[in-house]
Specification:
The chain is mainly α. The protein has helices at residues 11-21, 41-54, 80-111, 115-128, 132-153, 171-181, 186-212, 217-240, 251-261; strands spanning 25-28, 31-36, 61-66, 160-161, 164-165. 62% of the residues lie in helices and 8% in strands. The strands form two sheets. A three-stranded mixed beta sheet has the order 1-2-3, with helices on one face.
């Protein structure tokens, strides 16, 4: 808030932008909120003036938000140490998710070679989404990742285990059976079950929002949670694998490569 590309873990940045200039706006995706302390006439006139200045900038909406004197001398959390901790937490979280995504690409793509393309599709669809249909498409991409990875880890079979079918459309049963066979502890299995259930719940919520024609913030928030839960489920699957994932190389690519290098062979 206040300025872009500012690092509040650096004390000079905080004093210049957090203290001297102060926080005046909050950017929320394509919306901007003008921060004011109260609804006094002087504050409302300020909002009117700033709103007119921002009209030529292509924000989806320009809103008013009451800060209730936050970021002022009346806010006991408005100091450098608190700003530094918040900045370092955000940086650490970025690093944490970077580690997770690195492991997903580095390990799961051995057995699910098309996973990179499918994850990229989720990213592109979600980052550019503007309508309910766009978010529904991002959700569908998440579901395809779930189904594709399940097919790679535990292909469909006519086998019945503990009364549960493991056929093509039984993705949930097959993924849980994979988890059981890679058993480390009951905690791991329970975690997989909980995360799959959460992911299915997000899909149902997004389907409901799409059917109601709802879009905007509620739809984007649900879709974002769907994307995050998909990533965390992939991380869970990596954590329970006791041995390296089997490398899955498509035979037709090897054959084509061999023939291109040895055109005289039949």
């Amino acid at each position: 808030m206040g300025a872009l590309e500012i690092d509040y873990s650096l004390e000079l940045h905080w004093w210049l932008y957090g203290e001297c200039i102060g926080t005046r706006f909050r950017l929320l995706d394509k919306e901007i909120n003008i921060l004011i302390d109260n609804n006094e006439p002087e504050s409302l006139d300020y909002v009117s003036d700033v709103s007119q200045r921002l009209e030529n900038i292509p924000f989806d909406s320009i809103n008013t938000e009451y800060s209730n004197y936050r970021y002022s001398i009346f806010d006991d959390k408005h100091h450098y140490e608190n700003a530094r901790r918040a900045a370092e937490w955000k940086q650490g979280t970025d690093s944490l998710f970077s580690t997770i995504t690195d492991e997903i690409i580095g390990k799961l793509t051995d057995t699910a070679p098309d996973l990179t393309d499918k994850l990229w599709s989720i990213h592109k669809t979600f980052s550019k989404a503007e309508t309910g249909e766009d978010y529904a498409q991002a959700m569908t991409s998440c579901r395809r990742v779930f189904e594709y990875v399940t097919d790679c880890l535990f292909p469909a079979t006519d086998e019945i285990v503990d009364g549960h079918s493991l056929k093509k459309d039984k993705y949930k049963n097959r993924l849980l059976e994979f988890a059981k066979r890679e058993f480390k502890s009951k905690v791991n299995i329970d975690l997989i079950v909980a995360n799959i259930s959460s992911l299915f719940d997000e899909w149902e919520k997004l389907y409901a929002l799409s059917n109601k024609g709802v879009h905007g913030d509620p739809h984007r928030q649900e879709c974002r949670r769907c994307v995050l839960r998909t990533i965390l489920l992939l991380d869970d699957l990596i954590s329970i694998k006791r041995t390296p994932f089997e490398v899955n190389i498509k035979a037709d690519k090897l054959i084509d490569h061999y023939r291109s290098r040895n055109p005289g062979d039949s």
